Amino acid sequence: MPANSHRPHVMQRFDLTGQTAVVTGGNRGIGEALAWALAEAGASVVIAARHAERNLAVVDALKAEGHQASAVSLDVTDPDSVESAIESLSAPIDILVNNAGICYHEPAIEVTPQRFLEVMNVNVNGVWYCSQIVGRRMIAQGHGSIINTGSMSGMIVNRPQMQPAYNASKAAVHHLTRSLAAEWAPHGVRVNAIAPGYVRTEMSPLERPEFRRYWIEDAPMQRPAEPEELGPMAVYLASAASSFMTGEIVVLDGGYTLF
Ligand code: NDP
Questions:
Q1: Is 236 a catalytic residue?
Q2: How many helices (H) and strands (E) does the chain have?
Q3: Could you please report the per-residue DSSP string of 45-110?
Q4: I want to staple 256 with a disulfide (CB 3.0 to 4.6 A). Which of 41, 48, 159, 197 is the partner?
Q5: Ligand 1 contacts CB of residue 34 (under 6 A)
Q6: Which residues pair with 144 in a beta bridge?
Q7: Which residues contact 186 (CB under 8 A, 6 or more apart)?
Q8: What are the domain boundaries of the chain?
Q9: Rg (CA), the chain
Q10: What is the pLDDT of residues 181-216, one digit of tens each?
Q11: Under a CB-based contact definition with an 8 Å cutoff, are residues 130 and 102 in contact?
């Protein structure tokens, strides 16, 4: 043990006991996996998405394993819906995971104005509304950690499928992450993002042969991520383990963006 015997054990820094984490899009896919990881690290998790019955199914599964969990129905594109869902939570909100997101594969020339706005609304405006509404509370309480789910698509252009609105939306999420991090650091609020590569969820049709060639065979690890592989990074970013880290975009892509 080094000279400073008051130094906490490193594993204690990952402990989220007593903290509350709101996870948007937490009822399936990556969000569900992040919610499980945060709950296993000790947090009480709030599953926040539109479909109440799917939210409750995840809450029931978490509770069945002895974790603390609850649900709120919200649509991240509607600030009133976000405001009333957050107001219904009395405990301090220590962690916000802005994870809800959508993606369409469409060549730029075919993207309608409505479709472009739909993607921006969920992926960018949704992050903005939730961050601002929860951020107010975090600033008032003097601490908080916000984790945004960005994407490697905010850094590269995926192929063979074209998804211009999604790519632009994730680049915006990354820079919004940095902007809020810089502004809110003096208030004790950290803001970071994860940028996953392909992950096995409903969003990614991994088994389609026309995608497999580019998404899997071309990638250094030659496999997608399982959602659970992102969980430890969420615990790291949420907890005191990353106490000196803010404004970072952590790429978790099995090396995809190396080529
Ligand atoms: P899924 O399609 O499996 O899940 C999307 C989640 O978002 C659902 O829980 C859905 O719940 C919720 N959601 C969608 N629209 C809204 C809305 N308007 N308001 C509230 N919740 C909403 O996606 P993934 O788990 O794959 O993706 C999660 C995040 O990870 C997204 O931001 C995505 O862009 C990102 N990502 C995914 C990758 C992948 O390969 N899968 C790679 C890189 C990033 P409900 O319908 O009940 O509202």
A1: no
A2: 8, 7
A3: EEEEES-HHHHHHHHHHHHHTT--EEEEE--TT-HHHHHHHHHT--S---EEEE---------GGG
A4: 197
A5: no
A6: 189
A7: none
A8: 16-258
A9: 18
A10: 999 999 999 999 999 999 999 999 998 999 999 999
A11: no
CATH 3.30.870.10 fits 16-258, yes or no: no
Candidates 223, 179, 234, 192; CA nearest to 37 is 234
Query: Which member of 104, 129, 166, 214 is catalytic?
Result: 166
**Token digits of residue 64:** 């069945």
Beta-strand (E) ranges in 103-225? 144-149, 189-196
Tens digit of pLDDT for each residue in 32-80? 999 999 999 999 999 999 999 999 999 999 999 999 999 999 999 999 9
- Cβ of 235 below 6 Å from ligand 1: no
User: Using alpha carbons only, what angle is made at residue 202 by residues 197 and 204, rounded to the nearest 5 degrees?
Assistant: 35
Q: Is 100 in the pocket of ligand 1 (CB under 6 A)?
A: yes
Mean pLDDT over all residues of the chain? 97
